[in-house]
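1st attempt posting a full record on here, be nice pls
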Amino acid sequence: MASFRRFRPDDLDKFSKCNLDPLTETYDLSFYLQYFAKWPSLFQVAEDPSGNIIGYIMGKLESSPEYFKYSEHYLPWHAHITALTVAPEARRLGIGKILTENLEVAAEAGEAWFVDLFVRKSNTRAINFYEGMGYTVYRVVKDYYGDNVNDPTAYGEDAYDMRKPMSRDKALKHIREDGRNHDVQPEDVF
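the predicted structure (as tokens):
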């Protein structure tokens, strides 16, 4: 059975089980600590009874900068899932779902319009997981990832920008049904 709590800096020494997955982005230490300092309620871990970190989620609350205000790509106040990962031996136990639901609760408390995330277009397991939780594709970000885990000779890989509306978005104006038909370039997203 896993327990869930906020991230602590000493957890960084226990992430290796989670970060060995080729689909999991690994960041430098200062990046993790920045999330811990700025958005502690959106950075949570799942811990097994032995104290091993078997999953974590990192998120933030943000909006596009002021100079994007009149752009079609402007994003209002929202929560963003930067990383969600579960160690291979702990998958399919509901840990990712609980971590995501906990982040959504924090997003609601922060009065976010929606929660968004980027996922590799080839990562069908993750896409199915998020769709099962009510997320939909809002747009396709062309060559968002600089590498392609399925084809090392390819330049990059597209990402789906997936979103789930929060209760503040009663009119559902920050999601769309046909998101797979809306391509944007990486410089169009913030």
